[in-house]
Design goal:
about 180 residues, mainly beta, Immunoglobulin-like, five-stranded antiparallel β-sheet, five-stranded mixed β-sheet, about 5% helix, elongated
Length: about 180
């Protein structure tokens, strides 16, 4: 009796190198602000409904990945008007996308996130100490037509797929967040 390296009971075992494969794909969502408060006068029409925000250090300020993002970041309360999810990935999936649904399941907004792969390949998304990508998909409360969504509960779904050792793995996460609109 023995193992594949020729080690037998009672003999001194030889060191055998361990070959590690790629870690399993991870998609983790965190809601940074459970309820976002937006005044109708604070949402510029030119601002995209979903902005990809990154930070250079784990405790640093969020900044737009492409330079086109929400105004008021870094000011007191500037981020509290945004909702959305912070996405942590150990590798960028294919077909990455995001849906926002209202409380009745009606689609409010969808966003193709394939540009995350381009940003990651260009080195624009810094990795965390663990080696993960971390981005905030910040939602300013507008729907797909650019109108401000009503006060309520919303569901955010982020999905994608990864080819891993010949298998196609679907990554899919859903989070709940609140959005409140008001006037001055």
């Amino acid at each position: 009796m023995g193992d594949l390296s020729g080690n037998q009971p009672g003999r001194l075992a030889w060191w055998t190198p361990i070959e590690w494969g790629a870690p399993p794909p991870v998609l983790h969502l965190v809601v940074p602000y459970a309820i976002a408060l937006t005044l109708e006068t604070e949402v510029p029409a030119s601002e995209p409904p979903i902005s990809i925000l990154i930070r250079k250090a784990s405790d640093g300020a969020w900044v737009p990945a492409d330079g086109n993002g929400p105004q008021g970041l870094g000011t007191p309360g500037g981020e509290a008007r945004l909702s959305g999810v912070v996405v942590r990935l150990n590798r960028i999936p294919e077909g990455l996308g995001m849906y926002v649904y209202d409380n009745m399941g009606v689609l409010v907004l969808n966003r193709d996130l394939s540009d995350l792969a381009t940003l990651a390949q260009a080195g624009a998304i810094p990795r965390t100490r663990r080696g993960d990508y971390e981005v905030w998909l910040a939602w300013d409360g507008k729907d797909g037509a650019g109108r401000l969504a009503s006060t309520g509960i919303y569901r955010v779904r982020v999905y994608g797929w990864v080819k891993d050792e010949g298998k196609l793995l679907l990554l899919n996460q859903l989070r709940t967040l609140g959005f409140k609109t008001g006037t001055k």
